[in-house]
Amino acid sequence: MEPGLNQLLFISTALFFIGVFGFFTRRNLITMLMSIELVLNSVNLNFIAFNKYLWPNKMDGLFFSIFIIAIAASEAAVAIAIIINLYRSHHSIDVSTAEEMKF
Fold it and tell me: What is the pTM of this model?
C-alpha cells in the first residue's frame, strides 16, 4: 500500500519539528548539526511528495532534492571541519562554553 500525500506531509512535519526541537534544546555541536540535517531531509520529503502527487510529469521536485542533498553534504563537511578545529583548540564542542572561548 502506497502512502498518500497526507501521510507524507505528516511525516515531513514531524521530522521538521523534531529537527527544530533538537537544534534549540541541544548544546552539542554535533547533535545540532544532525538536527539541521533532519530539517533539510523534511524539506526533501516535501519536494518529493508534492512532485509526485501534484505534478507527476515534471522532475522539478527531484532536482531540488538532489540540489539540497548536495548542499547538505557540503555543509556537513565544512561544519565537521570547523567542529574538529574548535575541539583541537578549546578541547570542547559544547555550545554553552562558547562565551568563555577566547580566539
Answer: 0.78
Q: In Å, how far are 39, 76, 87, 92 from 29, measured between CA atoms?
A: 15, 11, 10, 10
Please say whether the dihedral angle defined by the alpha carbons of residues 42, 43, 47 and 50, taken in this order, is positive or negative: positive
The ranges assigned to domains in the chain are: 5-100
Asked whether the predicted pLDDT for residue 99 surpasses 80, the reply is: no
Sign of CA dihedral 55, 56, 59, 63: positive
* CA 3 – CA 59 distance, rounded (Å): 20
Q: What phi and psi values does residue 61 have, to the nearest 5 degrees?
A: -65, -35
For domain 5-100, give the fold.
Answer: Helix Hairpins (1.10.287)
The answer to whether 23 and 32 are in contact (CB under 8 A) is: yes
pLDDT, tens digit, for every residue of 5-63?
Answer: 899 999 999 999 999 999 999 888 888 889 999 999 999 999 888 888 888 888 888 88
